[in-house]
Batch of 3 targets.
Target 1
Amino acid sequence: MPQMGESIAEGTIVRWIKKVGDTVGIDEPLFEISTDKVDAEIPAPAAGVLIEIKVKEGETVAVDSVVATIGQASEVPTPNAQLPTPESPIPSPGPRAQSREPRAESPESRVESPEPAGLRTSPFVRRVAREHNVDVTRIKGSGLGGRVTKQDILEYLEKPQASGLRPQGSGLRPQEVPGPQSGVEIKPLSVMRKKIAEHMIMSRRTSAHVHSVFHVDFSTVERIRRERKADYERLNTKLTYMAFIAKAVVTSLRRFPIVNASLDGDNILYKKDINLGIAVALEGGLIVPVIRSADEKNLLGLSRAIADVAERARTKQLKPEEVHDGTFTITNPGQFGSQFGMPIINQPQVAILGVGVIEKRPVVVD
């Protein structure tokens, strides 16, 4: 499990792109992960054959945990020997495995309720079981050694008998326990959305938020865009409103460095570099890739940089260093038609700019 940012302690396997026995080329996408910073496809560090997958889809493990093994084709186990059946005992690790340091325990797994002796489940399964008052020992697991998987518990909740479960220690009769409602689809909250919520609540508690709203005349910007549109298209890029806004922001941050700063106790840390974060809306949440040294770029450079990070954010091709160390953030709720938004500061920054809709309006001039 790679370290996708300085503060990342764990990651969730969302999807295996390759399966056991597949040939893998170096830097070829191997699996997809989700963290609180970024969703990304992880490339193979070496060429060979995928001979073992140690972590299933939906499971969360600590950074640096071994999730798979790449080797030679001759090392691929036979189908019958690949995984022990639920009835067979799980083989004990050999001396080499026992000598390894214990895997770092993730914060989420520490706060989960203890699982029954001898039954191993993922943090996701334990959380769903707790939220729905499900005794996981009553679920027949399809995983390694009878392990209850994400699919097992979701399928169990859809069955009629799940609605009659009695929560442990609740004192309620089985018929009084509400089960999944008819016609309701149950989907787990994504790692990204869960972490975004946690970080935004933390930011509200950390910084006193105050908002100011201004109307800005974009007539001159629109005229310049029309005049230079063809020139930019010949250079294989588009001249967007966001490029003008980014240029205005970096110029202003040089004039007002206290906004390009962070707090460290009673000290203000003035950042010499202007690393501009651009919020990009994704289907599963929001991500803020960072354009480093944004003040050193002209309008063309900013246009290309914004288009590049936005495209790679949507295709999950961002690198870990491209999603942290931002010093100021721009978010654009106006693309959805809102007049303005009230954004929450992206910690540890001290300010954020929310851009509203750009549209024609009748106004009094002068």
Note: The longest helix spans residues 191-206.
Target 2
Amino acid sequence: MRRVARSWLVVLLVILSLLAAACGDDDDSDTKAGGSSTETTAKSGGTDAAGKGKKIGLVYDIGGRGDKSFNDSAAEGLDKAKSDLGIDAKDLSPAAGGENREELLRLVAQSGYQLNFAVGFASTDALKKVAGEFPNLKFAIIDAVVDLPNVASLTFTEEQGSYLVGAAAALKSTSNHIGFIGGVDTDLIKKFEAGYVAGAKKIKPDIKIDVKYITQPPDFSGFNDPAKGKEIGAAMYASGADVVYHAAGGSGTGLFEAAKAASTASAKKWAIGVDGDQHESADPTVRDFILTSMLKKVSVAVYDTIDKFVKDDFKAGNTVYSLKDGGIDYATSGGFVDDIKGQLDDLKKQIIDGTIKVPTTP
């Protein structure tokens, strides 16, 4: 009898341990930091989720997840795909200078991730090389066009949204003097500048516009230098600008601080955000100084591409997101542009129907 009892006890312990292991596998998420990158791995979705078994990798641009701008918009799309589709995802942040982008892309490819994103045009060369080495895997790049049969290119008409926030800046400016801060002096960021200047001059042809870039290529630190963003913003406000738009990624948080510091009870200074709705993502202490944001919905592009991949409908080639399809827009959070929304929406309609042609170069 004692032998039988002991046997049943062993069986019971085995069953309990298996149940505990099964429960532990339902939600496995961990974050690791080490060396020059930050890694986040997560699994979501039910057993019948459409994306179960699909592994998605994503390598951010400089600043990584948490920049409250460009990278966070990509993270939003990835997180939504985890929740909605049940994919298994790994996202990685590069070193401060971005020099290990290729290493991280190769890491997710070698780890068996079937669709891998490179966030940002600075990843172009790395993506080309890695995608060429793994022709049986799928890749996607944001803000660049890579002509390979296994690469989806995801680009945007940034100049269109910048035109609208440029018009907003001119309509709200009482000094007839505004500014633009670019993160890095590249052709892509010049699209933001071109649209912003054109929109402002549509409203006030004689408006003064200060333009300053934080860094020049190959130095891409201008996308993650809040101190420099604050310094340049403060100088523009001191020189008379009362609205400043940034296309500088994580450096924009410094601009918001500069707008708050330069504002007085009788003369408010405004900042304009970029990529995501920065009134919602910024520190609460600076939100009242963010007039609007140019919405570049990287989240939509990331989610759509994953959704197509899950449905076996992945397509190589360039997909352009614009005002017409909702991939580009302007934010209304805070209510600071409510009084001019009708004018902005009229300009938006004219851009969509082709009456207004927005330039892509300054």
Note: The chain has a mean pLDDT of 89.
Target 3
Amino acid sequence: MRTGALEDAPELVSGSGLDGFELITTPRALAQAPLELARQASAVHEVQRGPVDQVAGSLVDSVRGSAIVALGGGRVIDTAKAIAAVKGARVAAIPTTLSGAEITAIHRLPEGHRASRLVRPVLAVCDPEWMTTLPEPELRASAMNALAHGADSLSTPLSNPVATMAALRGAELIAKALDQATPKRDVVALTAGAVLSAWALDSALFGLHHVVCQTLVRALSIPHAETNAAMLPRTMEAMVERAPAAMKALAAALGTSVAELGARIEGLGGGPWRLRELGAEEGGVDAAVEAMLARPELAMTPDPPGADELRELVWAAW
């Protein structure tokens, strides 16, 4: 991870043994990337809007090679990983947001396909200037998505000392960077915080927060980062009694008290973000709650919530 890494991406990809790669990207990302990267690609595939499993399912038969470069945000990188899992391909990731997908082996599979393994990119080209170009509201939402990775990992059965250290340091870096005025913001620290948080998630996995947000995004067709920003204050408040030591440590890393944890997260995210303002329809809430209850990952939460509490969490962010 370093400033200027994007310009070196063609050389870095080639040096990683990914010659003949196929590029998976979006028009916006491609327009800002080094021209040499597209010239090196044996094929370029555009990622359409939609859930990762559906998008990957529509592209999987078009990808022929054993090397893929994903250039874009988390949805683009997860799509590349999904296809690579089916094809047995290797992936390099060049992220344009703070999604953390570039270093995790967490993703869906293409619709209608199975795989024997999940995929973690063999190369991540992380350029802080490139990863923090979103407008301020969207950047803060993306940062809350990143913060949620580490925060949710703190209290799973797989939590461990190294992942906890990464999550708490990541939270501290994200908070300090977001507290700075935009022109003076330390984007290297912000990006490092996001990467550490993603590493923690990859190690200890997730529980309540990700179950809620992933389900809401799919069930209500609302944007991913902003949904995380809306829900994170509420889900972390719901974890205070379930994992008091972990939430006390998280609050300290964010420079606040447990009593002010939700408010601190909401402020860092530029909130309040409201689900109704993201396009959520009230009629889909009950079905979303039922889908949350059906997720096996909910059991990764101490004292898993029932339907009533899950519904209350959603309405609290409405």
Note: The mean pLDDT is 95.
